[in-house]
């Protein structure tokens, strides 16, 4: 067994790995950027080393610096978590070259699956159906339009080195191709240092179902069931559950194909094979050669610690159980708790948490590195934590999730907690009939409700999201009430079960905006300016792209007009409300 492991990541996944190390009796070494000096993963580790300033490219992605820390701390292995360097074959090879064990699949397996175009070819060789599309890179927007004509719209433009929804854009028609290619290439170059793109046919209403694989270095592969990850916004997963609501026969074929693919490439760690399911057919989408964000729900149903399993496999240990010994029990659901404002198109919200209290009780798990007083850096993604529940069946798990969400208190920034309550209460989620477009459809249908909810004019079980007045406790005829001041006193007490309590929505206020400037909606980095002085813009036209918290955010003109001047430059850091473009009045 290893003596000391460098955890080359941050936040909740770094804390998760550190806990696994402690249970195995292994010392854990943390790394941190200047933005994470007081982070929980830093305090939880046995040792911690600074790796650089806040930008990930200068800290967590700086391979030379990470390797220097591993040498200084005398580590014998590195766990990359997910994201950052987790699927970087060059990093895996560098670890091996410097005498360190990379806790993850071999560099060869990462190469096979890391490039999505090569992965599609490998899936075909393993006789696994793939989504119709290209097996070669596309050169430019003209080539994409030609493919759109061949496959029929809509189509998906995707980064060959992508993952996690980054570098993925949908073109509904030929007119959308230029923008889809530009944004996908920009994101791919920013996050993966590789702008290579390919094209797939866009399936209208599939489920996104993935199979958890565990494989050792001796040729044995098992699956630990599947997860339904169809509840997505901007191709970012919000809610996951296991088992998926699919037919039993389809489930068996999907599991068998996933194991066959992992065996064919000699996979040797924890990994996830992602597929799209439409009717009674499934299609290979990609493979994530790492631990997955939503590994938690598989752990809850299968009773296997996947992070400890990764570590044991990396030592050369043979798998300690066979496929017929895997016996998933019950149902588990995960909700991702993000610092985002659903009422503002899920805009990331950096800021300081003024209050933070996690739910508890039977069957409830929280994986988080958040705490009251935490300042959320704008340089990283918006994930605050993961709320996971287990139930004997799906309905118990769903109701337990609603109860737990109602207990979650986060103040100081907008979060997805209240939105997730509405989503899990929805008829489509309750029935299990949802598909990948369902969240977008839900948001459009409930736009007014969300605006009211996040402006403080509505209440759901649990604490209202975002900054709000302090609660006041009063007693009337010996009955306790908790109220908040939102212009007037509004009683929040309600003894009905959370699952049956409808949110009391009010119509949202419309805010007039007739100024001559287009401003940045958030703190971030200017990734693109799409206009120049003298250009005429239409109302709603995208004029700039702001990169914030690992997302590319479009900035649109609030009215038509001619551009008088451009106040920002590409690469410049801007604050919320900063002028980007001025229009002639």
Short description:
This protein is α+β, with helices and mostly antiparallel strands and 585 residues long. It is built from 16 helices and 33 strands.
| Residue fraction in strands | 25-35%
Total E-strand runs: 33
CATH H-level homologous superfamily name of the domain at 337-467 and 490-502: ATP-grasp fold, B domain
Largest sheet: 8 strands, antiparallel
Q: What's the N-to-C terminus distance?
A: 70 Å
Structural class: alpha+beta
Keywords:
single chain; 585 residues; alpha+beta; Rossmann fold; Dna Ligase, domain 1; D-amino Acid Aminotransferase, Chain A, domain 1; eight-stranded antiparallel β-sheet; five-stranded parallel β-sheet; 28% helix; globular
Explain what you see.
With 585 residues, the chain is an alpha+beta fold. Among the domains are: 4-103, 3-Layer(aba) Sandwich (Rossmann fold); 132-201, ATP-grasp fold, A domain (Dna Ligase, domain 1), CATH 3.30.1490; 337-467 and 490-502, D-amino Acid Aminotransferase, Chain A, domain 1 (2-Layer Sandwich), CATH 3.30.470; 517-583, OB fold (Dihydrolipoamide Acetyltransferase, E2P). The strands form nine sheets. Strands 13-12-9-10-11-14-21-19 form an eight-stranded antiparallel β-sheet, with helices on both faces. A five-stranded parallel β-sheet has the order 3-2-1-4-5. Strands 26-33-31-28 form a four-stranded antiparallel β-sheet, with no helix packed on it. α4 packs antiparallel against α5, α5 crosses α6 (116-125) and α12 (394-407) packs antiparallel against α13. The longest helix is centred in the middle third of the chain and has 17 residues, at 248-264.
């Amino acid at each position: 067994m290893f003596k000391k492991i460098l955890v080359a990541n941050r936040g909740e996944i770094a804390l998760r790995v550190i806990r696994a190390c402690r249970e195995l009796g292994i010392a854990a070494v943390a790394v941190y950027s200047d933005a994470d000096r007081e982070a929980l993963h830093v305090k939880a580790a046995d040792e911690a080393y600074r790796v650089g300033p806040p930008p990930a490219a200068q800290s967590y992605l700086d391979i030379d610096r990470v390797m220097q820390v591993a040498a200084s701390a005398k580590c014998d292995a590195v766990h990359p978590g997910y994201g950052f360097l987790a699927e970087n074959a060059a990093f895996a090879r560098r670890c091996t070259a410097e005498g360190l064990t990379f806790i993850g699949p071999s560099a060869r397996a990462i190469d096979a699956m890391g490039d999505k175009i090569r992965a599609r070819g490998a899936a075909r060789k393993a006789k696994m159906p793939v989504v119709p599309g290209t097996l070669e890179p596309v050169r430019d927007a003209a080539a994409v339009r030609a493919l759109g004509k061949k496959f029929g719209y809509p189509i998906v433009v995707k980064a060959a080195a992508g993952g996690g929804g980054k570098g993925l854009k949908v073109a509904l028609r030929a007119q959308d191709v230029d923008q889809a290619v530009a944004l996908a290439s920009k994101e791919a170059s920013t996050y993966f240092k590789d702008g290579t793109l390919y094209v797939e046919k866009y399936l209208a209403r599939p489920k996104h179902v993935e199979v958890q694989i565990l494989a050792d270095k001796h040729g044995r592969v098992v699956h630990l069931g599947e997860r339904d990850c169809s509840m997505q916004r901007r191709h970012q997963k919000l809610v996951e559950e296991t088992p998926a609501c699919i037919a039993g026969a389809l489930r068996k074929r999907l599991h068998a194909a996933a194991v066959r693919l992992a065996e064919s490439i000699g996979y040797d760690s924890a990994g996830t094979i992602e597929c799209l399911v439409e009717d009674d057919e499934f299609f290979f989408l990609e493979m994530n050669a790492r631990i997955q964000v939503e590994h938690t729900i598989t752990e809850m149903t299968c009773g296997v610690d996947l992070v400890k399993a990764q570590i044991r496999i990396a030592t050369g240990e043979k798998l300690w159980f066979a496929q017929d010994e895997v016996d998933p029990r019950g149902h588990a659901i995960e909700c991702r708790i993000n610092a985002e404002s659903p009422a503002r198109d899920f805009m990331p919200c950096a800021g300081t948490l003024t209050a933070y209290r996690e739910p508890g009780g039977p069957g409830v798990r929280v994986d988080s590195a958040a705490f009251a007083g935490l300042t959320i850096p704008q340089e990283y993604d918006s994930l605050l934590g993961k709320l996971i529940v287990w139930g004997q069946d799906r309905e118990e798990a769903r109701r337990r999730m609603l109860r737990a969400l109602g207990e979650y208190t986060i103040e100081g920034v907008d979060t997805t907690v209240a939105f997730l309550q509405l989503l899990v209460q929805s008829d489509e989620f309750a029935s299990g009939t949802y598909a990948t477009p369902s969240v977008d459809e839900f948001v459009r249908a409930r736009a007014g409700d969300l605006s009211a909810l996040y402006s403080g004019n509505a209440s759901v079980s649990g604490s209202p999201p975002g900054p709000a007045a302090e609660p006041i406790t009063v007693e009337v005829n010996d009955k306790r009430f908790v109220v908040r001041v939102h212009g007037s006193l509004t009683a929040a007490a309600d003894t009905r079960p959370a699952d049956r309590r409808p949110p009391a929505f009010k119509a949202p206020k419309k805010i007039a905006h007739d100024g001559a400037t287009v401003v940045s909606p958030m703190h971030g980095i200017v990734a693109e300016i799409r206009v120049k002085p003298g250009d005429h813009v239409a109302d709603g036209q995208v004029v700039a792209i702001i990169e914030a918290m690992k997302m590319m955010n479009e900035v649109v003109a609030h009215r038509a007009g001619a551009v008088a001047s451009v106040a920002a430059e590409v690469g410049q850091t801007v604050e919320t409300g900063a002028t980007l473009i001025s229009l002639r009045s």
